[in-house]
Amino acid sequence: MQLVRSEDQELLAKTAADFVAENSPVSRFRQLRDSGDPVGFSRSLWKQMAELGWVGIPFPEEHGGADMGLAELACVLEELGRTLAPEPFLSTVLLAGEALRRGGSDAQKQRWLSAIAEGDAIGTVAVQEAGKRWDPLQAETRAERDGDGFRLRGEKIQVLDAPVADFLIVPATADEGLTLFLVESGAEGLSVTPQVRVDHRNVALVHLDGVRVTADAVVGRIGAGGPLLEEVLDVATAGLCAEMLGSMTQAFELTLEYLKTREQFDAPIGSFQALKHRAAEMFIEIELARSVVLAAVRALDSGDSEARALVSLAKARCSEAAVLVGNEGVQMFGGVGMTDEYDIGFYMKRARVAQLSFGDAGWHRRRWAELRGY
Amino acid sequence: MANLETFRAETRTWLEANCPAALVGRGDSALEGVWGGRKWVWSDPDRKAWFERMVERGWTAPGWPEEYGGGGLEPAEAKILAQEMRGLRIPQPLIGFGLTMIGPTLLQFGTEEQKKEHLTRICRGEIRWCQGYSEPGAGSDLASLQMKAERDGDEFIVNGTKVWTSYADQCDWIFALTRTDSGGKKQDGITFLLIDMDDPGVKVSPILLISGSSPFCETHFSDVRVPVENVLGEIDGGWTVAKALLGHERGMVADAFGSAGGGGGRRKGLADLAKDYAGRDGERIADAVFRDRVARNEMDTRAFMLTVQRSKDAARAGHRPGPETSLFKVYATELNKRRYELMVELMGPQGLGWEGEGFDPTELAVTREWLRSRGNSIEGGTSEIQLNIIAKRVLGLPD
Known about the structure:
The complex is a heterodimer. By secondary structure, chain A is an alpha+beta fold. Chain A folds into 3 domains: 7-121, Butyryl-Coa Dehydrogenase, subunit A, domain 1 (Orthogonal Bundle); 124-222, Butyryl-CoA Dehydrogenase, subunit A, domain 2; 226-371, Up-down Bundle (Butyryl-CoA Dehydrogenase, subunit A, domain 3). Helices cover 52% and strands 16% of the residues of chain A. In chain A, the strands form 3 sheets. Chain A has a 4-stranded mixed beta sheet, covered by helices on one side. A 4-stranded antiparallel beta sheet of chain A has the order 2-3-7-6, with no helix packed on it. A two-stranded antiparallel ribbon of chain A has the order 9-10. In chain A, helix 4 (70-82) crosses helix 7. The radius of gyration of chain A is 21 Å and the shape is globular. Chain B is an alpha+beta fold. Chain B has 3 domains: 2-95, Butyryl-Coa Dehydrogenase, subunit A, domain 1; 129-236, Butyryl-CoA Dehydrogenase, subunit A, domain 2, CATH 2.40.110.10; 260-394, Butyryl-CoA Dehydrogenase, subunit A, domain 3 (Up-down Bundle). A 4-stranded mixed beta sheet of chain B has the order 1-4-5-8. In chain B, strands 2-3-7-6 form a 4-stranded antiparallel beta sheet, with no helix packed on it. Chain B has a two-stranded antiparallel ribbon with strand order 9-10.
């Protein structure tokens, strides 16, 4: 495993950086938030990203993908994270797309993967349930047998991009165990109520009131949803870490620039040692985060037996580093850091959401300990 | 690539044929290192035989040119040799600051005569070197050093005191920073001298540390005469050489901590220590707080090692050293301190022994190492100095 980007990956990252600089400054995210846009991202920009081949990066060629790895996708996600671009990579590519790629039937893949790769379909996985911190393999949502199909009952919260999703993959507990079900939007008994979080990404409460699905809606095998979901969540978590790395890098650069230009006591505040050392500490945390994200995505791509532990390492470190950089950023900006007008607050809020998504640092340290046998 | 694989196979065969059987599988951590020098006394004939064979092969300094006694290996080959030695758990034939600090600096700044004379003797383990940087009045503010070197014909006359000279009582030569001009900026007017300690004007007194051991000394110089040809770099231009050497030193420190998986790497892992002392619940560490702290320390260690690997991979791919190298020293040493803190806390009352009854030898050793580890973030540039360097050089924050 080489912890360095290939020339092709560097080129892809450069293309993504140029695209983001031209099309997706933070002001675009601000405007989406201010206008209360019900989609929460730009459909036309998503289409352009699909045309650039980014949306289908991990999908097989027969389904319109590029058949590349998470290492490539991470190059794009990091750049998008820099300006908090809200396009639905996490929900549609890393969660729903990954679940179908790994566990979907031929018919499911045929129906959805190409449409996703072309930027025409949005999907998501409804993992989080109310009253739980993070326990993805235990679903209160039930799947009851109903003739040759199932009826799904339960509630999921903060489901990413659910208001605009064309389909949802719902983990529910059947008699045989955890099972993943593909539910199309508009299904009878399915209600989606938008929620607003501090990061203003598009999320919703999803209520399943006896939603009827047929047996061919099962993704993977009945009762075998746990291992599949865990694999999917590892990929999504590593992808989120790449996004977090981009966001924390940008937040840190904004803060550094402010430290160099803001003057108090007739000197740039960045000349004060109390702030210098804290800036250096942040730098260290970001550099370590960069190493562990590189390692995690490469381990997943190569099927390394350590991949799961490395994903936990990446998420634990990124969670703490992102929150540190966000908190310190607001503190170092001082009064203006508390105003909505400055972007630094966006980064702090997004860091908090990302920290608590897919398991926080403590959860991942626990998983690391379990994987290491203690 | 094919050549490298041939080299790997040949190297392994040679190592297996030449390393005394008693040393294979011992590894570095199970043995005290061979430091060499005029005062060195061999206690183990196998180590001596192994040392002599490696000297002959040039592999005490595999990457140095053959004309100076090294092995002349390419970086990729030297890496393979190191991997094969690690794989067979064969100890290094020779260690010391000659190989890790002054040697690389001589390669960078030395004259042909200096390289011929000193590198050759380092490779053969004939001379043991120590470092003369800090002074009683110059610690973190190293450039304020005052040890005088006055020109007298073809010689300098050296007067002053160096502190924290590691193992000076067992060394033969010292590389020292001296003040040759006090007129201008304090970084100017420093001269880097190579000094033979076999001079009646050199007096060495060991310093007793809080850990009870004395790895460091105070070294006094009175009217010590040093020939002008023993200046490394330019007269009054020693600060450049001094900084380059510090870079080698910090890299060495990071390698030492990073590759061993943190201090105490030779012993039981943290998790086993936690189970033994803080209780187990099946295979788990019973106490959730200790479990979290053990996991955190292991994960920090792994993140650091991956960062060292990233830096090496980038160098091999032809990139210049990235900003990440500046964090190695501060992170490795702070991590090592945290690890020892945790070990002592895990042992509870058994971690409090100084000597004598009621404590087993491992417990006593860990406690002493904990005390010693407190110096890691002070020696070789304090953590605060490292953070200053990052803030200035990497982040470009103003003075």
